[in-house]
Specification:
single chain, about 5% strand, Arc Repressor Mutant, subunit A, mainly alpha, elongated, 2 domains, Four Helix Bundle (Hemerythrin (Met), subunit A)
């Protein structure tokens, strides 16, 4: 359990270090990670702190410890590690506010690019999600997943893989906020209509209108 800001910094440092090691050494599942002693020296942290952090990572399924052999990477996924790091980093209000701001930047640029690069396949997928959202509401449910995937299709249709890879974890961090927003009286139905207007603008290739509609939609979605 993390009892202080200093403890959180130690965990964050270990996560970042492992991330850098995986990238620099191009490690794959089954490859060996530095020992507790090596991590302790690199981070300037106590062995006990490193040991606790590694234990947490093991419980999360990122690594495995083999007695007498060491610590090994287990089913490493880049976004999963970022998600876990985000759990510690996104606790303060300022960072959460920055997260919302960054998501807005990405969403607006994605819709701008989508106006130039989206294909009929993307349009059909967005139409399907709109129809599924309506069905969910009629069944008395909140279309949280459909909402998420609608925005994700727009990001994919930008055909910028880096933008998409950054967008995914950012939006996943704000899942609870999105669910609360859609749960407001009448908000889910309004969001569907806003999505429909965004789709029409993208299909028409009208960048300025599409960007403005997305900007309005994101503003309306805030609690």
């Amino acid at each position: 359990m993390l009892d202080s800001a200093q403890d959180r910094k130690v965990y964050e440092g270990i996560l970042l270090q492992i991330h850098e090691i995986v990238q620099e050494r191009n490690l794959r599942p089954g490859d060996k990670l530095p020992s507790e002693r090596e991590l302790s020296e690199q981070l300037g942290a106590g062995r006990s702190s490193v040991r606790e952090a590694l234990r947490a990572l093991e419980l999360l399924g990122l690594i495995e410890t083999r007695r007498g052999e060491g610590t090994f990477l287990k089913h490493y996924r880049h976004n999963r590690l970022i998600d876990i790091l985000g759990f510690f980093i996104l606790r303060d209000y300022k960072t959460k506010k920055d997260l919302v701001e960054m998501r807005k930047i990405l969403e607006l640029e994605a819709v701008r690019l989508a106006c130039k690069r989206a294909t009929q396949k993307h349009f059909e997928e967005m139409e399907r999600l709109l129809a599924a959202s309506v069905e969910r509401i009629e069944e008395g449910e909140i279309p949280t997943e459909e909402d998420y995937h609608f925005h994700r299709v727009i990001c994919r249709s930008s055909r910028n893989s880096i933008l998409h890879r950054i967008w995914v974890p950012l939006v996943e961090y704000s899942q609870n906020t999105r669910s609360e927003s859609l749960a407001r009286e009448g908000r889910a139905r309004n969001a569907i209509e806003e999505h429909r207007l965004i789709l029409e603008a993208i299909r028409g290739g009208d960048e300025e209108v599409a960007v403005q509609r997305m900007r309005d939609h994101l503003e309306n979605s805030r609690l």
